[in-house]
């Protein structure tokens, strides 16, 4: 039995509320159980210097956790500098979102996706990627509505889910009690039914090829459910 009482292939309840801020070109609040992340997308007509005059667009991301997103107060990173974990996660989010973008169709502009964790209960990077795509899509729709771009540069939705081996069982969508005790922990990022990135590690036990395949199967199920929610949110 999982601590939450869920079946091994059952995700937490996921909701995506869009247009939650006044000023951002795209925004959403994604809730994956008790993990809540605010995602905003900002359109910038300037691209990084290495892309100037290339005709290519760029998507990047920033990630952060509010001081009381967890059960004890964390230091505010804006004051003391980003941790290595934060830098790694925001690079992952940026890479993941770019995998679903036609950068020629986007044109020479940048979209910055900010993911701020309001409350953490496991899976914050996966929720950030999933919600980040929704915010990105809403920003792109505004570009299309105003005629700044002609075709949709977002080829496929990008979503992410965690899977792991908890108490000897392969389980979908780990919350914190499971994540902290999991023998194997994995994050799966997918777009259009194809893998973008897989992060897997043996936390307390090694795992077999068969177990890895089992976790991938669970991830495919979870991402399909998330993709349906993403598409419903941006209609």
UniProtKB/TrEMBL annotation:
The keyword Metal-binding does not apply. It holds the Pfam family RNase_PH. It is an enzyme of class 2 (transferase). GO terms for molecular function: 3'-5'-RNA exonuclease activity; tRNA binding; tRNA nucleotidyltransferase activity. Homohexameric ring arranged as a trimer of dimers. Belongs to the RNase PH family. This is Ribonuclease PH. It comes from Yoonia vestfoldensis SKA53.
